[in-house]
């Protein structure tokens, strides 16, 4: 190959390397820009004592990803499982150790027979000849009967312990869904189910959840941390602040407009430690666009086409207080 050919080949290799570098940069930046709305791309927050548990399935969100980031301490599941296994394990010792009466009876009979044999009376207790043999057979039969009875009792006792004490239903599926009237939507509504009957959720609560969906996205789009402070827990506010700081560092801003709830239903609602919790699955659409701050160029999304998202939001309130956002989980 001539020198000119080598130079051309070297230039081609350099161009290919440049293109590979550009492609790699796009791949690295794309995940950070995609799913740019408030709380998107990760599952964060706290659901009280249910933080480590999956939300109850609903028609809107049959499954949800587990919480990845949370300030709630993880429950000692391994220790609890070990304790439960220990308490459920059968007591140490054999059947005779747990039934001293039968063991004493059989021991006394065997001891009496052996004592007679040692002192010349025979196992039958002093009977001689054929009578001694007959007595021996009677004692063997008697001991065999007692042993058979003991085995029967042991099997019945084991079977009784193996059966559950009573029905323990972890989840009872609802035969149908009951719609809750919404004040601000003419489309599909948030609905409740019988599986979430631990805490009553009213029509006003559903209206609040729908309003907060839009209010939080609007405040996030404006970078309004003061507004978000009244809508979310300090933990979620910290996550939103981290996301906004990341956008500012990359020189982009995210705008979410025209948020509309398309479908939603209640996953579960409960009370603990003086707080009420409600986990709601929501499918909503919006205009979600991310622009370059310097020149306004769109780098993600569209300012005309609506996009759709499906998430599970958990709200909490103190007794008599207002609802605020405490967790967002992806589906």
Write structural notes for this entry.
The model is unreliable at 20-34, 77-92, 123-127 and 163-188 (pLDDT under 50). The chain has helices at 3-33, 77-88, 95-98, 100-118, 129-162, 203-222, 225-229, 234-250; strands at 44-45, 178-179, 190-192, 252-272, 275-292, 298-301, 307-318, 324-330. With 331 residues, it is of the alpha+beta class. It is elongated and about 115 Å long. The longest helix has 34 residues, at 129-162. Strands 1, 2, 3, 4, 5, 6, 7 and 8 form an eight-stranded mixed β-sheet that branches. 24% of the residues are buried.
SSE layout and pairing:
Layout lengths: L2 H31 L10 E2 L31 H12 L6 H4 L1 H19 L10 H34 L15 E2 L10 E3 L10 H20 L2 H5 L4 H17 L1 E21 L2 E18 L5 E4 L5 E12 L5 E7 L1
Question: Averaging pLDDT over every residue, what do you get?
Answer: 75
Strand content bin:
15-25%
Radius of gyration: 36 Å
The helix/strand class is: alpha+beta
Unreliable segments (pLDDT under 50, ≥5 consecutive)?
20-34, 77-92, 123-127, 163-188
Order of helices and strands: HEHHHHEEHHHEEEEE
Distance between the termini: 58 Å
């Amino acid at each position: 190959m001539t020198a000119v050919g080598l130079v051309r080949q070297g230039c081609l290799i350099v161009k290919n390397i440049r293109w590979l570098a550009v492609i790699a940069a796009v791949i690295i930046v794309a995940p950070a820009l995609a799913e740019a709305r408030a709380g998107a791309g990760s599952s964060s927050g706290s659901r009280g004592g249910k933080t480590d548990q999956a939300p109850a399935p609903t028609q809107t969100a049959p499954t949800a990803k587990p919480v990845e980031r949370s300030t709630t301490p993880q429950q000692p599941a391994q220790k609890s499982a070990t304790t439960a296994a220990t308490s459920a394990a059968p007591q140490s010792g054999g059947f005779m150790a747990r039934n001293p009466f039968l063991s004493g009876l059989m021991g006394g009979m065997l001891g009496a027979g052996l004592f007679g044999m040692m002192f010349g009376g025979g196992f039958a207790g002093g009977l001689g000849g054929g009578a001694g043999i007959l007595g021996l057979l009677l004692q063997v039969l008697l001991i065999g009967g007692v042993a058979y009875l003991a085995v029967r009792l042991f099997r019945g006792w084991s079977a009784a312990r193996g059966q559950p004490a009573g029905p323990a239903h972890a989840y009872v599926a609802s035969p149908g869904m009951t719609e809750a009237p919404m004040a601000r939507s003419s489309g599909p509504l948030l609905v409740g189910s019988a599986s979430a009957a631990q805490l009553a959720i009213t029509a006003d609560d559903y209206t609040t959840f729908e309003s907060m969906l839009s209010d939080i996205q609007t405040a996030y789009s404006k970078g309004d941390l003061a507004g978000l402070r009244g809508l979310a827990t300090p933990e979620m506010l910290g996550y939103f602040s981290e996301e906004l700081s990341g956008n500012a560092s990359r020189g982009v801003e995210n705008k979410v407009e025209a948020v509309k709830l398309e479908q939603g239903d209640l996953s579960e609602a409960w009370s603990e430690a003086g707080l009420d919790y409600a986990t709601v699955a929501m499918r909503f659409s919006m205009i979600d666009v991310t622009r370059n701050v310097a020149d306004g160029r769109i780098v993600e999304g569209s300012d005309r086409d609506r996009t759709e998202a499906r998430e599970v939001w958990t709200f909490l309130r103190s007794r008599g207080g207002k609802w605020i956002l405490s967790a967002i989980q992806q589906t």
